[in-house]
Write the structure tokens for this entry.
Amino acid sequence: MIRAYKFLLRPTARQATALGEILRDHCSLYNGALQERRDAYRHASKTSIKYGDQSAQLKDIRAFDPERQGRWSFSSQQATLRRLDKAFQAFFRRVKAGRTPGYPRFKGVGHFDTVTFPRDGDGCRWDSTPHDTQTRVRLQGVGHVRVHQHRPVCGRVKTISLKREENRWYVVLACDEVPAEELAPTGAVVGIDMGITHFLTTSDGEHVANPRFLQVMAGELAEAQRHLATFPRRTRRRTKAHRAAARKVAKLHGKIRRQRADFHHKTARTLVTGHDVIARERLNTAGMTRTPKAKPDPDQSGGFLPNGAAVKAGLNRSILDAGWAQFLGILANKAESAGRLVVPVDARNTSRTCPECGHVAKENRVTQAKFQCTACGFTANADHVGAANVLNRAGLALCDVT
């Protein structure tokens, strides 16, 4: 199986400067290649430039600018050009599908945060031995950078990525041939129902509280954003105070992101450790958090009817704060590594179906927390009912497969 490992780097001041220069120069290469494609399409009879054409120019580019482009890994620059090519492929794919495309945009230096080395040993080498307390990664043009390796790396290192988050630097290893760490069977199965009031509810009736990390830090974050907004537009990114205010906002968002990821990992680990089969809802979080479409007012030119956008915005914020999609992805990865089975089922009407008699009705859901069947009178917690129905549907799905 394939697994990614992410470790914190401990660069010196000189190395941190060089790491910043790597991102700056690869960002310049990305933007230059994007500009070339735009100019060729606009001014050269709509000529399309492919990755192979731009990769063939790298040798001349490195010879022309040895100080900025010639000192970095050739293969990492090819990976940056492939990144741009993938963006264009995605753009044309959306155009052909009739969707609203997003044309690839130029990257600001502060928004280009990753450089990939396609092969270990080519411009980047992972130096790690068992029980080594001084793990380092060697980067061409930077040197040996110390790594805080908090867990062993299994499998064969295939690609290495350098990533910047706020003012921290990380190395991400993509490893192949990682052996599965299967856990002993428990004989237990469970269904989970994702929610807002409770992060999730199990078919055993257990509720996992929703920590609401964004809501907890909303006041501090709003204050930092107000302070950032006080700087006049003409002086932005030109003063030390503005850069410090921007770093403050980024630091708070990073803290929320790390807290949420830590909670997701721990919750998923608990479920995987205690159950052989985990049934969960198949959720389209992108569609659930989409902004409602505007409703033109037929009686007033240029006017619009109420569409509940304000109320929906609060629900969208709560769903995104819970991070259902990230949690379900982490759960699937941990289950695969542990030899567990995750069964996604249709989420429709799971909280409106009576688990006793099977009656489905909107009226069964009396309140957000209470379920009462209008046919047989069965009463229970609505989230618990949803989790029980998810487990029942998973059992039917497994029966159909077998």
